[in-house]
Amino acid sequence: MKYRQLGNTDLKISELSFGTWAIGGSWGQTNDQESLKALEVAMENGVNFFDTADVYGNGHSEELLAKATKGREDEIHIATKFCRGGDIHSPETYSIDQVRAYCENSLKRLGRERLDLYQIHCPPLDILKDGKVFQVLDQLQAEGKIRHYGVSVETVEEGLLCLEHSNVRALQVIFNLFRQKPLEELFPRATEKGVGIIARVPLASGLLTGKFTSDHMFEKDDHRHFNRNGESFNVGETFGGISFEKGVELVKDLLWIEQGRKHVSSAALRWILDQDAVTTVIPGFKTAEQVQKNLEAVHVPPFTVEEQQKLLAFYQTNVEKHIRGPY
């Protein structure tokens, strides 16, 4: 495992880390013992960073991380998120008293005294424009409750706005072979500002594993069923904004990337790691087997300049026009 500095922070985190939405809920059936086993396998293989949120299983993923990392709090870094437990459009959700309460509840569930990275969880653009929430986070940082803070964003516009605030240390963005827009302006600007990039939805909710057929049926409590068209939250969080049927079709034209790289998924993750601005990529998982498979990405060959140009052209010609929702 290789480690990368998270922007201008003092955190050195594994280039391949993991997101814990799936083990918390909204991805179909889970098993806590299997989840804990998978977390242990990740750590045994050098993963020292996990991303979570207070709403993942109503705090369940935070509780699982507390169990898995007990006694290793100094070596395993955790990023969590807030605001989606309330009305994301209400200024009150971002008040000092409310954010402090969110923060303290996460600390309690995680069994920690300080959060390594605290992120606003995809807030509306008007909240970011208002900017008062950044002053609140400055206060929590001064109180010693958080080490660093960042923002999980839905669009490039939101990301660029966040970069105007000097204490933002990380941006979490939707970035994968089907969502390459951040490469154009956001990533260069983030690098210039010394802000780390956490790449989420890296496998387009599983599309980039190449395992699905167009008639696949997801469980009712899986967001790939209930948010397929953005019914519950931003459509970009599900299949990167591509319709499921179109995504299955597009993946067929990408199967060549697995040559010499074991799987389509390990190749897709490798492509993300090849982008200099990216600090870490955070695929999800529900089993130890999925963790092992994703970890293969750190060992497979990088993409050549010619291959990267081919993938960019594929995105611009075949994919971008099919992305739904703001991005």
TrEMBL record:
| Keyword DNA-binding applies | no
The enzyme's main class, written as a single word, is oxidoreductase
Is Electron transport set as a keyword in this record?
no
Q: Which Pfam families match?
A: Aldo_ket_red (PF00248)
**GO molecular function terms listed in the Swiss-Prot or TrEMBL record:** oxidoreductase activity
Q: EC number(s) per UniProt?
A: 1.1.1.-
InterPro entries, alphabetized: AKR (IPR020471), AKR2_Oxidoreductase (IPR053135), NAD(P)_OxRdtase_dom_sf (IPR036812), NADP_OxRdtase_dom (IPR023210)
Sorted alphabetically, the keyword list is: Oxidoreductase
Q: Which residues form the NADP-dependent oxidoreductase domain?
A: 15-311
Q: Which PANTHER family match?
A: D-THREO-ALDOSE 1-DEHYDROGENASE, NADP-DEPENDENT OXIDOREDUCTASE DOMAIN-CONTAINING PROTEIN
Entry protein name: Aldo/keto reductase
Supply the source organism for this entry.
Alkalicoccobacillus gibsonii
